[in-house]
Amino acid sequence: MNRSQTAALVKEWVTAEALRRHLLTVEIAMEAAARRAGLPETADAGADSVEAWRCVGLLHDLDYERYPTQADHPFKCVELLKSLNAPAAWADAILGHATYSGVPRATPMAKTLFAVDELCGFCTAVALVRPSKKIADVEVKSVKKKLKDKGFARGVSRADIELGLQELGVSLDDHAAFVLKALQDGAARWESALDL
Predict the structure, then answer these.
(1) Suppose 24 and one of 59, 155, 169, 190 were both cysteines; which one would form an S-S bond, judging by CB atoms 3.0 to 4.6 Å apart?
(2) What are the angstrom distances between the C-alpha of 82 and each of 59, 88, 181?
(3) What gap in Å lies between CA 21 and CA 194, rounded to an integer?
(4) Number of Cβ within a 10 Å radius of residue 115
């Protein structure tokens, strides 16, 4: 599977603009992380490539709109991917991003997906309360301040963000700066979320 095929799946499965935006932000963060790790560009190299990490980021919540319960999400997505002969590493990473799945995050791809998922959603929420509603106006200090406000973006698991930091072995300052830079650099790709 490649990026164009995964985008086609998102167009088929996801109609909500907010969810499409989230999928795109996670894709962008995964792409940036893969490049930082020096992975090859194309999926021809197997699971560890920039394209593969992008695809996993784009697909990780594919089933959430149709199947939002823990009984189904992300299991329906993984069933679909298996039927399409997607790499097993993709399924493992997607299952691992849901702590209740029982699948350990054993690969850099899985650990990165888990670590960027909630933080991407949180950074987007911080941007949306700015007067400009632009990610370009968000700073690390704003993210850290809002994380302390338990009433802000209640659906974002602070515990998952902390666990993701621990698993990657990075500080909140460094990880938030990295994710913000990736989202700011890719803002034109995700702020509209109409085009995949």
Answers:
(1) 190
(2) 13, 8, 33
(3) 8
(4) 26
Cβ 7 vs Cβ 23: under 8 Å: no
Whole-angstrom distance, CA of residue 153 vs CA of residue 71: 24
pTM above 0.90, yes or no: yes
d(CA 65, CA 37): 31
Q: Which two tokens stand for residue 132?
A: 């400009």
127: tokens are 């941007």
**What length is written for the chain?**
196
What DSSP designation does 136 have?
A: G
